[in-house]
């Protein structure tokens, strides 16, 4: 069964179907969108998890068909332990976004169609193994989000939407240049003209693709990195995030919990394996940007008066920690960064969902407008507390596991003085966790404690059963991910280990992906035992 094609095109076909529904039949459009997101999540769980081979470090569930063979373009899909969880995260957050948006009354059919378009595009990007198809899906995520902000956003929606589009599209231009340059370089060095990353990485590992071409490798590495730095978002390419999160409808930042992972995923899937020597020479710069972003965003978050903007800066800080783990080029750190991708999506999705519930009732997310809600909204407060504690990295929550592994990785690399990374990187990142605790607990205190002096707040009631079920499911995942993290990291470890070996081992000793198409998995050539 072509499970990856089903997961990619089921939401896209659903969006197309919604376009042909009568405008007046809003309820049918919502039911259809809800059914499709549920089906996508269920198909993803039963189609991927039971037969996924954790011991395999190659791509599984591969589908490959020639498209434009003369140009080296093929329809090639596949997942490993890194991308599989991001696909399931996308499906989960899309379901949450549709369920929350049930009461959207402004052009609901179009709104639901945009959520489905965004879901299909993100899943397609996470499982594409051909650069042309990845770029197509990568770009396809821009338009639905841009329209969501532009049509359903807040007072400054036009400014926020255009800023989002300009930033992300500018980064994509660099990726397009790099993608074409990489394919042409393959041809000019006697290798096949191809956009297939499995073939390209094999040429890198065994064919000396970058031998005597270090400048070309560095240029193309930074062309790819530019797009992913913007999407991640890493300082100083982060400024689109506060306006986007602040002005978009609640479904926007919920879905962004998966969308920004395209940036960190891009480094793991493309930048590190395809440009290994350039990556080793550049991680000190990238890690420095990540550290600055972690500290800067945490400090700015601490002085915000709007809870949505506070969480926007918090997301920038947390994504910086993700990138630090990846850039450590340490196995433990990279596993932590990969796991934290998943954790951040769940935690940030829950926090924005809860703020959405509050905004529906009060029409504001300004902290000064709240206080003393714990007594009259105890269930809401309890779930909010779980999300808050996960965000600040309390042991027992999923946020702790990912961050501590990422910190350990950057500490180990810094202590050894590898790749130009110093111990100061880990110290600075660790200090940011104190700031995170300060502003997250401050936000919780401002909303739920103190005097309930506002008459409007006194009329608020606790969240409804369906809201409890929706937010509670994410809260359960936070606890499960904290207490039983091996349920998730077990599938990631071999893929992360292989990605690391593709970078740190010398040419001739690097593992490669095999491009044979199979039903369940593709074994990789084993890495050498020596770590060079």
UniProtKB/TrEMBL annotation:
The chain crosses the membrane at residues 6-22, 31-52, 82-103, 132-152, 164-184, 219-241, 281-303, 310-329, 341-359, 371-394, 400-419, 426-448, 468-487. Belongs to the complex I subunit 4 family. It is found in: Endomembrane system; Membrane. One of its GO terms (molecular function) is ubiquinone binding. This is Putative NADH:ubiquinone oxidoreductase subunit M. It comes from the Bacteria. Pfam families: Proton_antipo_M. Residues 128-418 form the NADH:quinone oxidoreductase/Mrp antiporter transmembrane domain. InterPro entries: NADH_Q_OxRdtase_chainM/4, NADH_UbQ_OxRdtase, ND/Mrp_TM. Keywords: Membrane, Transmembrane, Transmembrane helix, Ubiquinone. One of its GO terms (cellular component) is membrane. GO terms for biological process: ATP synthesis coupled electron transport; electron transport coupled proton transport. It is a multi-pass membrane protein.
